[in-house]
Fold GntR family transcriptional regulator.
Amino acid sequence: MATSLNIPIDRSSPVPLYHQVVQGIEAMIRTGALEPGSKLENEIELAAQLNLSRPTMRKAMDELVRAGLLVRKRGVGTQVVASQVRRHLELSSLYDDLSQSGQEPTTRVLAFRHGPAEEEVATTLQLPPGVGVYHFTRLRSVGDKPLALMENWVRDDVAELTEEGLRAHGMYQILREAGVNFRLANQRIGATVADDYQADLLQTAPGAALVTMERTAVDDTGRNVETGRHVYRADSYSFEMTLVQR
Protein backbone atom coordinates (compact mmCIF):
# COMPACT_ATOMS: atom_id res chain seq x y z
CA MET A 1 0.00 0.00 0.00
CA ALA A 2 1.36 3.41 -0.98
CA THR A 3 2.30 5.88 1.75
CA SER A 4 0.86 9.38 1.86
CA LEU A 5 2.94 12.38 2.82
CA ASN A 6 2.17 14.74 5.68
CA ILE A 7 4.70 17.50 5.12
CA PRO A 8 4.06 21.12 6.18
CA ILE A 9 4.66 23.52 3.30
CA ASP A 10 5.44 27.15 4.16
CA ARG A 11 4.76 29.28 1.09
CA SER A 12 6.16 32.39 2.81
CA SER A 13 9.52 30.70 3.45
CA PRO A 14 12.57 31.63 1.34
CA VAL A 15 13.28 27.88 1.03
CA PRO A 16 12.05 26.71 -2.41
CA LEU A 17 8.91 24.58 -2.29
CA TYR A 18 10.57 21.56 -3.90
CA HIS A 19 13.37 21.69 -1.31
CA GLN A 20 10.84 21.79 1.52
CA VAL A 21 9.46 18.53 0.11
CA VAL A 22 13.00 17.08 -0.07
CA GLN A 23 13.68 18.08 3.54
CA GLY A 24 10.33 16.67 4.67
CA ILE A 25 10.83 13.29 3.03
CA GLU A 26 14.43 13.11 4.31
CA ALA A 27 13.11 13.75 7.84
CA MET A 28 10.46 11.04 7.47
CA ILE A 29 13.11 8.56 6.33
CA ARG A 30 15.48 9.57 9.13
CA THR A 31 12.82 9.18 11.85
CA GLY A 32 11.49 5.89 10.47
CA ALA A 33 8.12 7.30 9.39
CA LEU A 34 9.13 6.11 5.91
CA GLU A 35 10.85 2.74 6.23
CA PRO A 36 13.10 1.17 3.58
CA GLY A 37 10.87 -0.43 0.95
CA SER A 38 7.94 1.93 1.58
CA LYS A 39 6.09 2.75 -1.63
CA LEU A 40 5.01 6.34 -2.34
CA GLU A 41 1.96 7.54 -4.24
CA ASN A 42 2.61 8.72 -7.78
CA GLU A 43 3.73 12.30 -8.34
CA ILE A 44 0.29 13.54 -9.44
CA GLU A 45 -1.33 12.29 -6.24
CA LEU A 46 1.53 13.56 -4.04
CA ALA A 47 1.33 16.99 -5.68
CA ALA A 48 -2.42 17.07 -5.00
CA GLN A 49 -1.90 16.06 -1.35
CA LEU A 50 0.54 18.94 -0.77
CA ASN A 51 -1.25 21.39 -3.07
CA LEU A 52 1.83 21.74 -5.26
CA SER A 53 2.36 21.70 -9.00
CA ARG A 54 3.44 18.47 -10.62
CA PRO A 55 6.77 20.00 -11.88
CA THR A 56 7.60 21.05 -8.30
CA MET A 57 6.89 17.55 -7.00
CA ARG A 58 8.86 15.93 -9.85
CA LYS A 59 11.86 18.17 -9.12
CA ALA A 60 11.79 17.11 -5.46
CA MET A 61 11.49 13.42 -6.32
CA ASP A 62 14.29 13.68 -8.90
CA GLU A 63 16.62 15.16 -6.27
CA LEU A 64 15.80 12.38 -3.78
CA VAL A 65 16.44 9.75 -6.45
CA ARG A 66 19.81 11.34 -7.28
CA ALA A 67 20.65 11.35 -3.56
CA GLY A 68 19.99 7.62 -3.40
CA LEU A 69 17.09 7.90 -0.93
CA LEU A 70 14.37 6.92 -3.40
CA VAL A 71 14.35 4.58 -6.37
CA ARG A 72 11.92 4.35 -9.29
CA LYS A 73 11.06 0.79 -10.30
CA ARG A 74 9.18 -0.01 -13.47
CA GLY A 75 5.83 -1.56 -12.64
CA VAL A 76 6.26 -0.88 -8.92
CA GLY A 77 6.54 2.87 -8.51
CA THR A 78 8.73 5.00 -6.26
CA GLN A 79 10.15 3.36 -3.15
CA VAL A 80 12.33 4.36 -0.21
CA VAL A 81 15.83 2.88 -0.44
CA ALA A 82 17.24 3.65 3.02
CA SER A 83 18.47 6.55 5.08
CA GLN A 84 22.06 7.40 4.24
CA VAL A 85 24.93 7.39 6.66
CA ARG A 86 25.71 11.12 6.71
CA ARG A 87 29.25 11.73 7.81
CA HIS A 88 30.44 15.18 8.84
CA LEU A 89 33.85 16.20 7.59
CA GLU A 90 35.84 15.88 10.78
CA LEU A 91 38.66 13.71 12.06
CA SER A 92 36.60 10.66 12.97
CA SER A 93 36.19 7.14 11.65
CA LEU A 94 33.24 5.37 10.07
CA TYR A 95 33.17 3.05 13.09
CA ASP A 96 32.93 6.09 15.41
CA ASP A 97 30.16 7.68 13.35
CA LEU A 98 28.07 4.52 13.16
CA SER A 99 28.48 3.78 16.87
CA GLN A 100 27.57 7.34 17.88
CA SER A 101 24.40 7.16 15.77
CA GLY A 102 23.27 4.06 17.68
CA GLN A 103 24.13 1.52 15.00
CA GLU A 104 26.24 -1.59 15.50
CA PRO A 105 28.98 -1.86 12.86
CA THR A 106 30.63 -5.17 12.02
CA THR A 107 33.98 -5.67 10.33
CA ARG A 108 35.47 -8.39 8.14
CA VAL A 109 39.23 -8.27 7.80
CA LEU A 110 39.85 -9.35 4.22
CA ALA A 111 43.66 -9.06 4.26
CA PHE A 112 46.29 -8.28 6.89
CA ARG A 113 50.06 -7.91 6.55
CA HIS A 114 52.87 -6.50 8.67
CA GLY A 115 56.21 -5.66 7.10
CA PRO A 116 58.22 -3.14 5.10
CA ALA A 117 56.29 -0.40 3.34
CA GLU A 118 56.18 -0.02 -0.42
CA GLU A 119 58.00 3.06 -1.70
CA GLU A 120 54.85 5.11 -2.35
CA VAL A 121 53.45 4.42 1.13
CA ALA A 122 56.82 5.06 2.82
CA THR A 123 56.96 8.44 1.07
CA THR A 124 53.37 9.34 2.02
CA LEU A 125 53.93 8.42 5.68
CA GLN A 126 57.46 9.89 5.68
CA LEU A 127 58.74 6.76 7.39
CA PRO A 128 62.22 6.80 8.95
CA PRO A 129 64.56 3.84 8.28
CA GLY A 130 63.50 0.64 10.00
CA VAL A 131 59.85 1.58 10.47
CA GLY A 132 57.35 -0.71 8.72
CA VAL A 133 53.59 -0.70 8.31
CA TYR A 134 50.47 -2.67 9.00
CA HIS A 135 48.61 -3.02 5.71
CA PHE A 136 45.03 -4.29 5.87
CA THR A 137 41.71 -4.27 4.03
CA ARG A 138 38.37 -4.33 5.81
CA LEU A 139 34.70 -4.56 4.86
CA ARG A 140 32.49 -2.49 7.17
CA SER A 141 28.78 -3.36 7.43
CA VAL A 142 25.68 -2.59 9.46
CA GLY A 143 23.43 -5.58 9.88
CA ASP A 144 23.60 -7.51 6.64
CA LYS A 145 24.30 -4.43 4.52
CA PRO A 146 27.91 -3.61 3.56
CA LEU A 147 28.74 0.10 3.50
CA ALA A 148 32.46 0.50 2.89
CA LEU A 149 35.55 -1.25 1.59
CA MET A 150 38.59 0.21 3.35
CA GLU A 151 42.32 -0.24 2.70
CA ASN A 152 44.76 1.30 5.21
CA TRP A 153 48.45 1.49 6.04
CA VAL A 154 49.51 2.32 9.63
CA ARG A 155 53.11 2.89 10.71
CA ASP A 156 54.17 0.16 13.14
CA ASP A 157 56.01 2.35 15.66
CA VAL A 158 52.81 3.89 17.08
CA ALA A 159 50.79 0.81 18.10
CA GLU A 160 50.51 -2.94 17.77
CA LEU A 161 47.63 -3.98 15.52
CA THR A 162 46.06 -7.42 15.13
CA GLU A 163 43.35 -8.90 12.92
CA GLU A 164 41.30 -9.74 16.01
CA GLY A 165 41.52 -6.17 17.28
CA LEU A 166 40.48 -4.71 13.92
CA ARG A 167 37.46 -7.03 13.76
CA ALA A 168 36.27 -5.90 17.18
CA HIS A 169 37.15 -2.19 17.21
CA GLY A 170 37.57 0.83 14.99
CA MET A 171 41.11 1.60 13.83
CA TYR A 172 41.08 5.14 15.26
CA GLN A 173 39.82 3.82 18.61
CA ILE A 174 42.73 1.37 18.77
CA LEU A 175 45.27 4.06 17.90
CA ARG A 176 43.86 6.57 20.39
CA GLU A 177 43.95 3.96 23.15
CA ALA A 178 47.61 3.35 22.25
CA GLY A 179 48.34 7.03 22.91
CA VAL A 180 48.06 8.54 19.43
CA ASN A 181 46.63 12.07 19.57
CA PHE A 182 45.34 12.95 16.13
CA ARG A 183 45.63 16.59 15.14
CA LEU A 184 44.65 16.91 11.47
CA ALA A 185 44.26 15.02 8.20
CA ASN A 186 44.61 15.68 4.51
CA GLN A 187 41.54 14.22 2.82
CA ARG A 188 40.29 13.95 -0.75
CA ILE A 189 36.73 12.92 -1.64
CA GLY A 190 35.72 11.75 -5.10
CA ALA A 191 33.59 9.30 -7.01
CA THR A 192 34.03 6.18 -9.09
CA VAL A 193 32.04 3.21 -10.36
CA ALA A 194 32.24 -0.26 -8.87
CA ASP A 195 34.39 -2.90 -10.53
CA ASP A 196 33.45 -6.58 -10.25
CA TYR A 197 35.47 -7.09 -7.06
CA GLN A 198 34.01 -4.05 -5.29
CA ALA A 199 30.49 -4.79 -6.48
CA ASP A 200 30.62 -8.35 -5.15
CA LEU A 201 31.80 -7.27 -1.69
CA LEU A 202 29.49 -4.25 -1.43
CA GLN A 203 26.49 -6.18 -2.78
CA THR A 204 25.82 -3.74 -5.57
CA ALA A 205 25.97 -3.89 -9.36
CA PRO A 206 29.17 -3.50 -11.39
CA GLY A 207 29.18 0.10 -12.61
CA ALA A 208 27.19 1.37 -9.60
CA ALA A 209 28.23 4.72 -8.17
CA LEU A 210 30.70 4.72 -5.26
CA VAL A 211 32.01 7.54 -3.08
CA THR A 212 35.79 7.51 -2.65
CA MET A 213 37.90 8.93 0.16
CA GLU A 214 41.68 9.14 0.51
CA ARG A 215 43.10 10.32 3.82
CA THR A 216 46.44 10.76 5.57
CA ALA A 217 46.17 11.53 9.31
CA VAL A 218 48.75 13.42 11.35
CA ASP A 219 49.28 13.29 15.12
CA ASP A 220 50.20 16.09 17.52
CA THR A 221 53.92 15.43 17.08
CA GLY A 222 53.70 15.94 13.32
CA ARG A 223 53.98 12.27 12.33
CA ASN A 224 51.95 10.94 9.42
CA VAL A 225 50.37 8.04 11.32
CA GLU A 226 48.14 6.36 8.77
CA THR A 227 46.97 6.63 5.20
CA GLY A 228 44.03 4.97 3.54
CA ARG A 229 41.83 4.56 0.48
CA HIS A 230 38.15 3.84 1.07
CA VAL A 231 35.10 3.33 -1.17
CA TYR A 232 31.50 3.67 0.02
CA ARG A 233 28.15 2.73 -1.51
CA ALA A 234 26.79 6.00 -2.87
CA ASP A 235 23.18 4.97 -2.17
CA SER A 236 23.94 4.60 1.54
CA TYR A 237 26.63 7.16 2.27
CA SER A 238 27.32 10.88 1.99
CA PHE A 239 29.64 13.49 3.47
CA GLU A 240 28.36 16.75 4.98
CA MET A 241 30.38 19.95 5.25
CA THR A 242 29.99 23.56 6.30
CA LEU A 243 31.51 26.15 3.97
CA VAL A 244 32.82 29.42 5.41
CA GLN A 245 33.35 32.67 3.49
CA ARG A 246 37.01 33.71 3.61
